[in-house]
Amino acid sequence: MLKEFTKGLWRESPTFGQVLGLCPTLAVTTSAENAIGMSAAATFVLVLSNAMISALRKLFPPLIRIPCFIVVVASFVAALEMIMKAYFPDLDRALGIFIPLIVVNCIILGRAEAFASKNGVLPSILDGLGMGAGFFLALFLIASIREIFGAGRYFGIPISRLFGSKPGAWAQPISVLTLAPGAFILLGLLLAGRQWIGRRKG
Amino acid sequence: MEYLTTLFKVSLIQNMVLAQFLGLCPFVGVSKKREDAVGMGIAVIFVMTLASLVAWIVERLILTPYEIGYLRTIVYILVIATLVQLVEMIIRKVSPALYEALGIYLPLITTNCAVLGVTLLNQNAYADRTAFASLTLGLVQGAGGGIGFMIAMLLMAGIRQRLELAAVPKAMRGLPIAFICAGLMAFAFLGFVGIVK
Questions:
Q1: Contacts of A150 (CB under 8 A, 6+ apart)
Q2: Which side of chain A, N or C, has fewer Cβ within a 10 Å radius?
């Protein structure tokens, strides 16, 4: 049972293993804070929709199951939007249209189709939590690299202050990492790193 | 004039894929062959323009008058899914040749986040404008976004076809090198910033 959780962390990691849900992965990872917010939001929807779809899986007519999944996911996203607007307005503004776009996130529909529609409620919840954790790890890694090296900050605090020196005295940030090209190249290098490790492990 | 600048802006400067990170899944999934990239690109331009129109109608006639804006995401995705299904049926009936060419790409478009993205962007950007301006600007943004998507797909497909023959290090083969190429393309597209203020 625990395997349903741990497989999402590395072997079937949604970002590095299955290479799904890339749009938010690259778009919101300019700061570690946004990465945490985005992955928490996606995990919220993923776990709830996995649980709901798995509970209702025998009621969906096979031919139109995908539209049914989309309706379930969209309902949870609508609930999430209201929660975000009410309690986390700053985060909601920072993540912008990527909150409503969770509806079409391939990770969530992919898990609904590949796992929740075939398995029981408890494994599906664990699967959702595992995939959410894998998504969080990937986003947090990318955002940490982009924020530390690209903006010279971490969680909004200038790195130079951590070392007690003047701003800019420690190092100049590689600001291209915060722009779109840097995001693509960084993801390419991380995927290459994963392929390299996978190859050495055999 | 605003229409022209909007067209430039959404298709090149704020390119859907390379600057706004929308529609990355089909961008890496369907860009292995040039013919596929063209088919997908045309289908996306078509659906994005239509989706902008239909979303505008739904927004102005249903969501705003009845003040149910919080249902926007659900309504938009259902409208897009239905629209894609409808377009598929119409094309199959009217032009079997076009259906042959686009058929397999159409169902994929429902979950293309660029389509839902452009309707939401239209809503964010033009909600306060007059009915006519928000419709026409939305249509331009929809078509322009689709054109930008197609440009990016086509360039990527050309690069990837050549990459097949290149001696790429083992660990970089496949997606890693594709993303690095996309990054270099995004660099080139940064050059368009400044054409329109």
A1: A30, A173, A174, A175, A176, A177, A178, A182
A2: C
